Structures are given as structure tokens and as C-alpha cells.
Amino acid sequence: MEVHSFVYMPSLELCEQSVAAPAAETAPAAVNTTIHGLAVTDKAATDKLAGDKPAVNADHGPAAALPVSAEPLASAPVADEPATKAAENETGTHTVPVPAVRARRFWRVSTRRLIVLASIVLGMRIFVGEASVVPTASMEGTILVGDHLFMDKLLYGPEIPLVHWRLPMVKTIHRGDIIVFHYPRDPSETFLKRVAAVGGDCLEIRNGVLFVNSQPVQEPYAVHHAPLHSPQESWGPVVVPDGKLFVMGDNRDNSSDSRDWGFVPVGNVIGEPMFVYWSYDAPTARWLDENPGHRITFYASIAENFFSRTRWSRTGRLL
Q1: What are the b/e assignments for 196-225, b being 16+ CB within 10 Å?
Q2: What is the pLDDT of residues 291-308, one digit of tens each?
Q3: CA dihedral 212, 214, 217, 223 (to 10 degrees)
Q4: How far apart are the first and last CA of the chain?
Q5: Residue 228: pLDDT above 50?
Q6: What is the DSSP code string of the chain?
Q7: What is the value of pTM for the model shown?
Q8: Residue 129, Ramachandran bin (φ over 0: left; ψ between -120 and 50: alpha; else beta)
Q9: Residue in 43, 69, 75, 138 annotated catalytic
Q10: pLDDT tens digits along 173-182
Q11: What's phi and psi for 116, nearest 5 deg?
Q12: Which segment, 42-51, 158-167, 310-319, is predicted with the most confidence on average?
């Protein structure tokens, strides 16, 4: 109820000033004082000056005595900025500068984006594809030393890290496919060869000609340098066990393959090359040299001779 009386007070005073204007000459107006933002109505002074005559309202009769309100006025003065800062210091609050807030927000967003990007790149490398370089000449004629390949892994049952589980392989391997696989004698090494025969095939090499199931195979990609009486040009016959692959390099006279160390389990296959995204002309010894100092020198020479020794005609070549 006190709040209602305080709200009604301004309208009552306005009504008295507008309707009872003639009476203002004989009855002095109520004395209002404002002390430090508090509206105070001195009723005793008003009654004394008006001869104890209550003000009459034409519509509502004698005006009710206005209560003394200790509520602050609606429009309190606005404190300036220095005062606000002083108050903040007294109360122990601290205002963070806007540039600091923006910098913190920028680094938070940037860190989140980097984490998402790294997750995408890692996921693609594990499950979709991987880039690799060919350091040897066993596939020369089709793939050259220094070719950088993008390898498809998705269709060959990629391995889940840590738990070493493999997703199911959805692609069937056929004769003539170029595959990437773990070397059977040392799974830490990765080889790149062409499939010559699959499980159940009878394979034989006669004078450099490949026979599968007694039928000669046309191999326009095969490169022969050794004479026909070389042991590598005559080999077999042999039957490939189920679940195994017989692989050979296209450079038949300079390739370590199934003729030397036997069959490749199908489970060792991890992918196939799709295309050459960059090819740099450098010898095998430079690609295989693991000496840190020599590696730094080699990378410096690549930066220096990038345009002159890059095989631009091989960029984007499908395999």
C-alpha cells in the first residue's frame, strides 16, 4: 500500500495545480523539499501557511495528506566513470580490459579449430589415404624413384590405432593390381608391388613370359634387362595357396619380390596407390639415407632445385 500511495502522489499534485489554480492565490502551495534525492512533503508547514485549510480537489474532495516518502526519486544522478572505477576498487571488483577479452576469445576459438583440423587430418590418414614416397626402382617403368604417391586405404580394411583392429576389407584383389603391403618377413617395412597371381592360381615364368593357369599373360608394363637364360626369367611352376598373393615388381630384373621371399598374405595388404602428386628426380641412395646431417643437406638441395628437378609431366598421373 505504501508503494501505491507513493505512485499516486505525483498525479494528485498535478491535479491540484491544474484544477484548483484560482485557489493558489489564497492558499500557498505545499512546501516540497528535496534532500539528497529524497522527496519530502512538509504537511505541517503547508497547513500553517494555508490557515489550516485543506486543499480542495474539484473531483475528489479534500485532498488526503501526502505521506513523507523515503524512497529515492526515479531519476537518480548517474555516476561518472572515475567514481565507478573508485567504487569498483573499494568493493574489490575488477573489470577485464576489452582487448584482453578479445585475445582470450581468439585463442580459445583458434585452439578449438586446430584440434578439429588435426582430428580430421589424422582420421583421413588412418582411414582414408596416406602419402608416401617410392625410394627404389623395383617398379620402374610404371613408378619411378622419387614419385610421391597418394595411397587409398579405405577399401582395404584400415587398422584402428592402439587396439590394432582392422575394419573389413571391401575390395577384392585381382591380378595386375598394384598394392601396398607389409613385408612378410618384417611387417614394419612397407612394399609396393604388382599382383601376378592370387590364391589357387598356378604360376610359371618361361623365358621371361609369365604364365598363369597355363595361359600367357600380356604385361606391357614389365621391364626386362637380363638375358633370357637368367634364373629370374625362368621360374616355377608353383600353386599359390588360398589367402595368399604372388607379387612381382615391374622392373623384373631389379626387384626383390615373391620369387625371393615367397607369398604375401592378403591380410598384409593395406592399400593401393591412386596417383602421383609430386615427383622429384633424385637417386635411391639420397632417399634411403637416414643420417640426420645428410637429410638436412638433401632437403636443402630439394628447396634449391625444386623447379628444375621436379618431373612436372608426372604430376597428377593415375596409376
Answers
A1: bbbeebebbbeebbbbbeeeebebeebbbe
A2: 999 999 999 999 999 999
A3: 80
A4: 90
A5: yes
A6: -HHHHHHHHHHHHHHHHHHT-GGGTTSPPPEEEEETTEEEEEHHHHHHHTTTPPPEETTTEEPPPPPP--SBPSSPPPPPHHHHHHHHHHHT--PPPHHHHHHHHHHHHHHHHHHHHHHHHHHHHHHTEEEEE--SSTTTTTS-TTEEEEEE-GGG-PEETTTTEEPPP-S---TT-EEEEEETTEEEEEEEEEEEEETT-EEEEETTEEEETTEE---TT-B--S-TTSGGGSEEEEEPPTTEEEEE-SBTTS--SHHHH--EEGGGEEEEEEEEEEEB---HHHHH---HHHHHHHHHHHHHSHHHHB-GGGTT-B-
A7: 0.63
A8: beta
A9: 138
A10: 999 999 999 9
A11: -65, -45
A12: 310-319
* Rounded (5°) CA angle 153-220-210: 90
Asked whether 247 and 194 are in contact (CB, 8 A), the reply is yes
Of 153, 193, 258, 279, the catalytic one is 193
Q: What is the pLDDT of residue 104?
A: 83
Residue type, 63: A
**2: phi then psi, degrees, rounded to nearest 5:** -65, -35
Region of poorest pLDDT, from 77-86, 126-135, 245-254 = 77-86
Catalytic site residue 193? yes
Residue with grid cell 485543506, as numbered in its chain: 54
- Bridge partners, residue 250, by sequence: none
Instruction: Pull the grid cell for residue 96.
Output: 577485464
Check: CB of residue 47 under 8 Å from CB of residue 66: no
241, 235 in Cβ contact below 8 A? no
| Domains of the chain, earliest start first | 2-77 (no CATH), 128-281 (2.10.109.10)
Distance CA 222, CA 173 (A): 19
d(CA 148, CA 166): 26
Question: Average of pLDDT values for 244-266?
Answer: 94
> Letter for the amino acid at 17?
Q
Quick check: is 138 catalytic? yes
All cell numbers assigned to 295: 637429410
